[in-house]
Amino acid sequence: MAYHLQNDRLSVKIAELGEAYRGTRFDGSGIITGIELNGRHQFCVPESLTPGTGTGGIGLCSEFGIKEAIGYEDARVGELFPKLGVGLLTRPDEAEYRFYREYACRQFETEIEQKSAQQICFTTQPAECRGYAVRMLKNIEISGNQLFVTYTVENTGNRAILTDEYSHNFLGIDGYAVGPDYVLKLPFVPEIWSDEPETLEGIEFKGDHVTWERRPEKDFYFRMDHFDGRAVPWLWELTHHPSGLIVRELSKLPLSSAAVWGHGHVISPEMFFAVHVAPGERQSWTRIYEFSIE
């Protein structure tokens, strides 16, 4: 059964644990599968429209350690390593960690408390693993036309937690396909590059704006300079014309990297935040989203 947050501007649907996602990539607590503005406009879409393809992401879902999982490098084959928001995974062989690979998993224990019609909190309890242990709180709250997702990572083990977190924002406004009617605006003029330049065919970069000449027929992915999100009014702004619908991320975060992924139905700005927590310490950060219409 899904959870709901509701006020006079926003209706937010949040999946029950294991309901919308059962993989070992994304944080399974507090996956936001639906956001509705003014009772009619929708913003969340699945990663893939074809059943059985993709890695199962949907809406606003976070991932920790996409490039390097905590403790993976020094884990022997058959030993456990922690994936925050997921559980204790088993290293199956000598291959490098791959975020899209499925691993055997002992899920973390997570408690859920809906504090009001506008707030819910997920608390994931620590499970010791070779000196690593984390208690994690994820608080989701709405106010007016804004959505707040606050993480608190508490290191209860005796080894440092060094990772990163980003929200894989699977956004598609009112079901409109990606194309000339979408504009992604950034708070500066970035240097853009891609490991697969051929995927950028049909994408135009005009100063601080990104636009699409036509609907992409395959995945696109590009990276950009990281920047200090505390010094700009917002991290990114996605607008659909002519509907005038806008979603922007207002998070005040010093970013460690930044990228954009997408396909013909979805645009996903990805803003990465470095998580460094010494034993006995804690770290908190908040992602803020605003939904509006011109």
Number of strands: 23
Class from secondary-structure proportions: mainly beta
Task: Give the low-confidence spans.
Answer: none
Distance between the termini: 34 Å
Query: At the first level of CATH, what is the class?
Result: Mainly Beta
Question: Treating each run of at least 4 consecutive H or I residues as one helix, how many helices?
Answer: 0
Helical residues, percent:
under 10%
The Rg value, from CA coordinates, equals 19 Å
Largest sheet: 10 strands, antiparallel
Please state roughly what percent of the residues sit in beta strands, choosing from under 5%, 5-15%, 15-25%, 25-35%, 35-45% or over 45%: over 45%
Total tally of structural domains? 1
The pLDDT mean sits at 96
Q: Which CATH architecture is right? A: Distorted Sandwich
What is the fold named in CATH at topology level? Beta-galactosidase, Chain A, domain 5
